[in-house]
Amino acid sequence: MAHGRRQFTEIIESFPEECRHVLESLGAVYGFDAETKARGMTAEERLEFHQAHSEPVMDELHKWIEAQFAEHKTEPNSGLGKAFSYLLRHWKKLTLFLRQAGAPVDNNIVERSLKMAILNRKNALFYKTLNGARVGDLFMSLIHTCELNKINPFDYLTELLRHPAELAESPSHWMPWNYRTTLARMVKPAAA
After folding, report:
1. Are 174 and 155 a contacting pair, CB within 8 Å?
2. What is the pLDDT of residues 137-166, one digit of tens each?
3. Is the pTM of this model over 0.85?
């Protein structure tokens, strides 16, 4: 959805009315999604909410875009026509969140993850040895996993270095998502 939306933000100066209609429709859907998150809905509740609120908006948008072509209001080869065509061509995938519980409105989190891998690949061109590239990949993976778990990578790696014996004994207790619990268990309360 984010790619489709971006195409309209790029051409809004040339087609202000049409782009505003699309962007407002998509904005309403993102607003509904934000509401589901704010309410802490389960995947099933979120699906039902989107079906009740977002589906009518998306259905209206789909009909409106098709009418733009059917009534010859939009030239298919224009920037607007290409943006409309992108949405129509990917409609089934773009509206998966209306049929599948847990499906996101967009896949921005995946794209951000892929950007990290691409950045690492570019940086890997400058490693002097194959082992250096492996070490770089290992650290990049650890850092990114920490970021996904909202953990400071420096603090995490520091704790791993402070507890090598414990880490070797129970590696599964020292993952970015649970190492703080392990540290808390290690700290004994002070005697009164």
Report:
1. no
2. 888 888 888 988 999 999 999 999 999 999
3. no
Cα 19 to chain centroid distance, Å, stands at: 23
The residue behind tokens 């996993």 is 145
Residues with Cβ < 8 Å from 118, sequence gap 6 or more? none
Measure the CA–CA gap between 182 and 186, rounded to whole angstroms: 6
Residues in the chain: 192
Name 70's Cβ contacts closer than 8 Å, sequence gap at least 6.
none
d(CA 13, CA 45): 38
- Return the SS3 of 131: helix
DSSP three-state, residue 59: helix
Closest to 64 in 3D by CA, of 77, 73, 55? 73
CB 146 within 8 A of CB 153: yes
Among 94, 136, 107, 100, residue whose Cα is nearest residue 119: 136
* Alpha-helical runs (H) found in the chain: 2-10, 16-38, 43-70, 79-89, 91-94, 108-124, 130-148, 153-162, 164-169, 179-186
pLDDT per position as a tens digit, 168-187: 999 999 999 999 999 999 87
